[in-house]
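Hey, can you fold this one?
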Amino acid sequence: MLEKLSAIESRYSQMEARLNAPETYADPALAARLNREMTELRPLVETFRRLQAVLETQEEARELLSDPEMKELAQEELEQALEEQEQLEQELKVLLLPRDPNENRDVIMEIRAGVGGEEAALFAHSLYRMYSMYAESRGWRTEIDAINATELGGVKEISFTIEGTGAWSRMKFESGVHRVQRVPETESGGRVHTSTATVAVLPEMEVADVQINPADIEMQVYRSSGAGGQHVNKTSSAVRLIHRPTGTVVECQQERSQFQNRDKAMRILASRLYEAEQAKIVGEYTAERRSQVGSGMRNERIRTYNFPQGRVTDHRIGLTLYKIDSIMNGDLDEVIDALAANDQAERLKAQQS
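Sure. Predicted structure:
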């Protein structure tokens, strides 16, 4: 590992020198590329340099062990340096894990009401509210792309984009079936109902990232509408794209112009086609999006929100938190941190096996 890290540090130093060279100032594209690569390597290089300093401290402490007057202090310093070495080596193992190629991308999230009728639609809206509040707490921007609302304030389905640093690396863990257990507003007898909503998370791709033949796309335009069929726009600005080879249908209705809606719909289509292609690469029979959301049946859940008990349980890692109100208000960090740590541990285990 040390040999590999030394090579990375040497490469980083070379880029640093090149970035400060006079000829680089005349080439903004080169300077941007160097800055981007150095930003990615910086945490690894800085941690490695801290490890080197700790190893030097150990050598100095070992040399002082033979001095009777300094032995006790040297032994204490050596033990501390050994602990720091173990911690830094673990950090470096994590930093050396293969990077997710989509780590810095924005995300497209799609939430659909599952089992449970109107209560499922109300829960789907609650999930959208939870994610939008979480995004706001992290300084991310949320934009609705398409929504099919119900008259009681729920949503049958909603597609929205979250833009911000780290959006994909955090939100990718939310894919799956979410189950709610609560007394619906429409329930007069006070009985607890169980409903579901499905969540799919896609990295937002640019159209240039995916090969799409324009001849394969059928575009339809229509008027944006809200709950109850009331028209939001009087002009046909909403766009529906149909990708004939795959049957993928994408809609976008929230932008003011047909051109803006088509541009956004093309990016959503690119994201879905990219994800389907990635699923084929890893040998899956169906697109990852379908495996993420399943059929919406109650027994496929990844997380349960139990309102009578005030708890949220993530079934993938066995985590239960009794703070449902704060979680539904966007306080998701504790859950996502635990999922990220579990993912990291599994990748480390796979790397070592």
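The two ends are 16 Å apart (CA to CA). Let me know if you want another pass with a different chain boundary.
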